[in-house]
Amino acid sequence: MKVAPQSGILWRVATARLPTKWGMFHATGFQREVGNLIPRVETALAIVAGDLSRDAPLARIHSQCFTGEALGSLRCDCSDQLAMAMQAIAHEGSGLVIYEYQEGRGIGLMAKLKAYELQDAGIDTIEANHALGFKADYRDFSLSAAILRDLGVTRVRLLTNNPRKVRALADAGIAVVVRLPCEPAPTPYSLAYLRTKRERMGHALSLRRSDNAGSFASGATSHIFGWRRADHTRAVTAERCDRGGDVQL
Questions:
Q1: In the chain, what are the domain boundaries?
Q2: What does CATH list as the number for 11-102+139-242?
Q3: What is the DSSP string of 144-164?
Q4: What pLDDT band is residue 123 in, cutting at 50, 70 and 90?
Q5: pTM of the entire structure?
Q6: DSSP state for residue 181 in the 8-state scheme
């Protein structure tokens, strides 16, 4: 399947059952070649539950975070966001997480650690990236859009706080019927980072605290579980997300 002029054919590598603590999923590996002068292979996983042919399944585009997901770091909310999405999809019985290998907003693990070192000295996550010669965010979501199309998904309810993901899918022809918040409660270690994402990167974050730091924000989970399919007509466009006009659930 041709996905973009600068990209090669998207291949399904393998599919296997993936029993998890939230329920049964199936993981499908995808890969494609990208680039012209220096070709490289990019890969991602589609972690799927249930039947995706139902209108506008729950979906999350999630970027790898080794420090949060494998080491339990509390400097970010990535691990809890992944858990929240998996829980919500399992609760509904269908949906998918597309897991992309874009550590540190695309700069890689070693550069991410260098950025952490600079943040420990007092600058924020964006300033740290710039000091290392990087943009604030190098991620590209065209692979996720191609995977959704390959799976026959053209409409989603997107679990994200990032309006850039909404715009990326809309630009690729994937309709975002609604943007659903995916916001765990901040910890004392993640609060400054999340505040920067809200104030300088436009992420839709309330930064509500909870009694148990690091646990899910109860409001966000109730938003996800409380959504009803009958309300799909309340479409959310990328433009409305930019203006702060997200659906209030």
A1: 11-102+139-242
A2: 3.40.50.10990
A3: HHHHHHHTT--EEEEE-S-HH
A4: very high
A5: 0.81
A6: P
